[in-house]
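Data deposition worksheet. Section B asks for the primary sequence of the deposited chain exactly as it was used as input, without tags or linkers unless they were present during the calculation. Section C holds the resulting structure in token form. Section D is free text for depositor observations; keep each observation to a single sentence. Incomplete worksheets are returned to the depositor.
Section A, Depositor: J.P.
Section B:
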Amino acid sequence: MSEERHGTRRSGGPRKAQEIFDATLDLLAEKGYEGLTIEGVAQRSGVNKTTIYRWWPSKGALLGAALIGARQLDFTPPDTGSLAGDLEALLRTVVTLLTTRPSSDIAVSVLGAAPQSPELAVHIREFFADRITLEQPVFDRALARGELAADTDTMLLVDLLAGAAWVRVVLRQLPLDKDFVSRAVGTVLNGALART
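Section C:
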């Protein structure tokens, strides 16, 4: 993973970037976006707030960098040998994110705050663009294996799967059945129409 991806740019950067990112996400999970402050991050990370402001001029910019650069949200694309297996692994990652604390608190806080903060919304789009880029090898391999049509909208595919988990867990607050992941992937890949 490049230094730039972790928010410490090749031209330099704070030595304690990970501590800053961890403190940012921990405070977000505890206090929500409204309670997240640069001063609080500085105190928790042991870094002077002027150092944080030098790299990230606002809490939205800091949170955006933390979402992409924090080790606790690190992501390695799966390689199970099949598109269905890879999509199930991706969806299990989303389900774990939404059902395990503190990541569930982080996810809900970030997406809940996005509509009220245009600046944060920009950083959330950057986070999702980063994730889509990291997920791309899953689709490249599926295309090479002949499992995926060349004109497939892979972002829509991911949105359908992740959206199903979000609606079920966060909005409806329902428990996930043991076979939720495999059923969701099967429905998205194969459809729901009766076969004749």
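Section D:
The CA atoms of residues 98 and 166 lie 7 Å apart.
The radius of gyration is 18 Å.
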